[in-house]
Amino acid sequence: MCDSVTIAIVEDDDDIRTQLTGYLEGEGFRVVGLDGGAGLDRLLATGPAPDLIVLDWMLPGEDGLSICRRLREEGGPPIVMLTAKDEDIDRVLGLEMGADDYVSKPFNPRVLLARIRAVLRRAQGNGAHPANGEPETLAVADLVVDLAARRVTVGDPRTDIPLTSAEYDLLHCFVTRPQRVLSRDQLLDWTRGRTADAFDRTIDVQVSRLRHKLDAAGSEAAALLKTVRNAGYILAAPVRQAP
After folding, report:
1. Are residues 197 and 181 in contact, defined by beta-carbon separation less than 8 angstroms?
2. Most buried among 18, 60, 69, 95, using CB within 10 Å?
3. DSSP tag of 182
4. What are the structural domains of the chain?
5. SS3 helix, strand, coil % of the chain, rounded to 5?
6. Are 9 and 54 in contact (CB under 8 A)?
7. Which pTM does this prediction carry?
8. Please, which residues have CB within 8 angstroms of residue 128's CB and are 6 or more apart in sequence?
9. Cα-based torsion angle of the residue sequence 85, 91, 122, 38 in order, rounded to the nearest 10 degrees
10. Tens digits of per-residue pLDDT, 11-28?
11. CA pair distance 35, 14, nearest whole angstrom
């Protein structure tokens, strides 16, 4: 997988950018190092887009949060944020802007590598396809989830709902385990695996974002994602096989 994967590192610190470029290239990735948003925009304009962006929060000019929000609105590639801010509110803000994951500075490059691989697996759908004999397309209320294509649509005619890889994986958990209370730990394990922190509460943010996107698309399914106090979340409706 690595040989065909391009990662853009947007980091204004020359030492960090050089260190990460060398490390990730040593792991078999193709790496493009950039010192700010202008360089990233030029890369995206000339194409093809990188498979993943490692984006520093504190950049001169347009900061990482603004870039992240803009790319999400444009349907850009997955983003792992690098941040020296380690407060929960900062992590939540980064996720709300559309980051797929985050790593706090200072960090071990191996930790970043694990996060990158986890996000790429989600984005590329590894392990998300249905097993033989299982339905490939599921529906709940007016929502249709194509498991093979990782596509979510609503309405008639069908309209795509653009989800990040993290949001899609969360929805995948709910539609494949309907009417069951799923704990935050279970959801973290299924969506982020061993890269999750022991006290990671970002599932709450991801569920909120997922509800918001479904609601903004006019889907009845948004109201079916229920919070179960002190237990987790549940998709409170049956799921059927879609034609």
Report:
1. no
2. 95
3. B
4. 2-124 (3.40.50.2300), 137-241 (1.10.10.10)
5. 45, 20, 35
6. yes
7. 0.60
8. 122, 147, 150, 169, 172
9. -60
10. 999 999 999 999 999 988
11. 8
